[in-house]
Amino acid sequence: MVKVVKFGGSSLASAGQFKKAGEIIRADAKRKYVIPSAPGKRHAKDIKVTDMLYDCYELAESGEDMKPVLRKIRARYNEIINGLKLQLNLDEEFKVIENRFLEKAGRDYAASRGEYLNGIIMADYLGYEFIDAAEVIRFDDQGEFDPDTTNRILKERLKKTERAVIPGFYGTKADGSVKTFSRGGSDITGSIVAKACRADLYENWTDVSGFLVADPRIIDNPKGIKVITYRELRELSYMGATVLHEDAIFPVRTEGIPINIKNTNAPEDSGTFIVESTCQKPEYTITGIAGKKGFVAVNIEKDMMNTEIGFGRKVLEAFEENEISFEHVPSGIDTFTVFVHQEEFEGKEQSVLSAIHRLADPDSIELEADLALVAVVGRGMKSTRGTAGRIFSALAHSNVNVRMIDQGSSELNVIIGVSNEDFDIAIKAIYDIFVETQL
Predict the structure, then answer these.
(1) Within 10 A of 94 (CB to CB), how many other CB atoms are there?
(2) Burial 237-253 (b: 16+ CB within 10 A, else e)
């Protein structure tokens, strides 16, 4: 059995956190491949090493003195090295970094050095081989990740390597220039490595014990999610749940490799398992609740709309012309509503309205702003009668006016539109009816 383990920035922010990670890795011989992030914040007022590297590079790029910031970065790493009592010296690495910054090697190169240096330290600490991600993670000439080439190179390399540390977040293009993933980089690298070695499990170690049913900023001490499917996670991530970036799911999803979100500071917690499918019944009817504020509903009315072939296409073409993507499109016999991000829409609203009139010739158009969308997600909803009724009942008891409801054909999620000011109240009401009442 092989496990790939990724540790986030908060898990590797100091020597003390490194020791916790080391204990976790050494506690299980199956943890063979390790993906480290750059050191994160040690405390609330601290600065992440990646942010320090960006600042340092900007100084170099503008011709200002970057050395004071570079010394601070070096001090962060030396603090970790000394705390771990390692016989390791990064002076030569920092000389190379300084020269490359002066040569204006690029922001991606600058940002990647946080993971690169942490990877060297982690490999030395564990006694594992260090594999520079630049050697095995490939991007094409346009800067898009090249999964096929990466998988081929990485597979061959890992066949010859029993245990290794591979820094997250970056790779290289064909010309040798460093390219970083745009978001969730180390999570994605861990998933790519898990796929290449056909791991039995991908453990993602962070500072929380997995996913929660609802946002803890809205619900006090929300319950944890023990098992969630890829599809459920996709729905929740899309609506704002952010423990794991959704791009990190796809490499392992194609191989059916489960992900376990774990807490470095509480390794005994079971965390959350993310799986392709499961026959395990969820603890509650719903798996999770998530949402976003800041939407506009563009309500279009036209008599006999349902008999006009291509009406929906014409309306959506007006948004396409103005480069605006839509979120949801609930419709009735004579009504058609398009939900879009308010911030994106406001500067182009009159242009969009003119285009709808020109293309679709509606009877009327009304705009409703300051709306929020709440997603209630759960594989258990499909087999439970009255789920929608319970949602409406809970919202009615909390005096929340429902502006829209949209349920997908899979019955995996229900999307509810409410006013921005009712957003927190709606989530609390739904959480109470499905979770608190089942305790």
Answers:
(1) 17
(2) bebebebbbbbbbebbb
Give which of 199, 211, 300 is closest to 251, Cα–Cα: 199
324-364 residue pLDDT tens: 999 888 888 899 999 999 999 999 999 999 999 999 999 99
The DSSP letter of residue 17 is: H
Residues in Cβ contact with 303 at an 8 Å cutoff, skipping those fewer than 6 apart: 334, 363
Structure tokens at 69: 């910031």
Q: Assess contact for 402 and 419: CB atoms under 8 A.
A: no
Within 211-310, where are the H helices? 230-238, 250-253
* Beta-strand relationship, 31-36 and 164-165: parallel
Report how far residue 338's alpha carbon sits from residue 328's, in angstroms, rounded to the nearest whole number.
6
Which pLDDT value is given to residue 318?
96
Which backbone phi and psi does 328 adopt, to 5 degrees? -145, 150
Polymer length in residues for the chain: 439
* 251-291 tens-digit pLDDT: 898 899 999 999 999 999 999 999 988 888 778 889 999 99
173-196 per-residue burial string, b: 16 or more CB within 10 A, e: under 16 = beeeebbbbeebbbbbbbbbbbbb
- Tell me how far apart the alpha carbons of residues 166 and 36 are, in angstroms, rounded to a whole number: 7
Residue owning tokens 């506690």: 27
Q: Report, in angstroms and rounded to the nearest whole number, the Rg of the chain calculated over CA atoms.
A: 25
Sheet containing 413-419, strands listed edge to edge, beginning at the edge strand earlier in sequence: 335-341, 288-301, 364-377, 413-419, 404-407
Paired sense of beta strands 201-206 and 31-36, if any: unpaired
CA distance 139 to 154: 13
Contact partners, residue 63, CB within 8 Å, separation at least 6 = none
Q: Is the pTM of this model over 0.70?
A: yes
Distance between CA 346 and CA 29 in Å, rounded? 55
